[in-house]
# Entry
Amino acid sequence: MRQVDVAVIGTGWCGGIRAETLSRSALVDRLHICEIRPERLAEVKELTNPATATLDYQEIVNNPDIEVVYISTTPEQSHYPIAKACLKAGKNVLLEKPLALELSEADELIALSKEKGVKFTIGYSQRFNPKIAYAKKSIAEGKLGSVVNVMVSRHLSRNLGKKIANRVKLSPAAMESTHDLDFVFWLLAPAKPVRVYSQGAYGYMKDLNGSYDCMWTTVTMDDGTLVVIGGGWNLPPSYPNYCGTWIEITGTEGALILDDTSRDNWLNTVKDGTQYPMSTMPGEQVDHAFAGQMGPETLHFLEAVLLDGDVMVEPEHARMVMETYSAADVSAEVDEPIKLPLSNQALAKLADLKGG
# Structure
C-alpha cells in the first residue's frame, strides 16, 4: 500500500490525538500540522516530528502534496470555511462534528465533495466504541428481533461542560447528544427520523452561558421505532473530561443493555482522589496502545482514502443528525413536537434562536 502526505489542522485535544496517531502510522509518508497557538504548535511538533508545522491553515490548503486533511479546529464556526477551502483544493477531509452551523453550509460542503470526487466524513468516533459496534452487529444479526425503542443517557462533568459551552453557543443536544443521534440512526438504518420533541432544564450552566444543564429528546422514526436521548454537562467536578453513558435497546425478541459509564477503571489516590482513567469520549494513549475510539477512527479514514473504500460516516447522514438536533433546539424553545424535514416556520424559528 502506498503512503500519503497527511495534515491535521487544529491540534488541541482531539487534533492532538489524531496527529499523534498519524505520526506513528506506516501509511503516512509525511505529516503536516497547523495550530494557531504557537506554544501548542511547538508542543505537538515535539511529539510528532512533522515535515512542516505552521500557524496558517492556508499553507496546508496550498500544498499540493497533501492529499488527506483532518480538521479539528475550535471554535466550531471555523469548521465550514476551513473545510470548504480544503475540499475546493481537492483534498480528502475528515471534519470534527458539527458538520456546520447552518444547514445551507452543510449542503454546500456535501455538494463540493461530490463535485471534486473526494472522500468527506464527519468525526463521530462512537461508532468505533466496541460496545456500539456490538449493538450494530446484534441488531444486524436479528438477535433482538425488530427494535422497538432505544434509550441513551449521556452526561459529562461540568469541568468539560464549561469548556465546551463557553466555546460556542450550541446546546447539549447539538454538542453531546449529536454523537448518540448519529450512532442510534446508524443502528436503526434505513429508518429515518420524522418527529422530534425535546425539553431542557436549566441549572448550573445557565448563569455561565445561558445553556441548559441537560436536554432530553424523543425522536420518532418513520418505522415507528421510538428513540429517547438525554444529554447533559452538569455532573459535579470530577476526573477531567469524564463522560458516562447508559444505553438500553429493546426489541421484539430481546434486549441489549450497554454500561458505558467507565466505572470499570477506578483509580483512587491520596493526592488526587477518585479518578476514572480511559473515561473520555475520544479515548487516550496508554503506553503502546490507544484506549478509545478516536485512534482507530483516524486510521480508518486514511485507509478508506488509500483503498478507495467507504467512509464510516456519510456526510448526508451527518446532515440528518444536524437537522434532528436543530429540531430539538426548536422544540425545547416552543414546547411542541417538530416534524422532519424542518418546515419553513421551524427554520425561521431556528434562525431566531441563533440570532438571539
Notes: The chain is about 40% helix and 30% strand. The longest strand covers residues 147-157. Residues 313 and 323 are 16 Å apart (CA to CA).
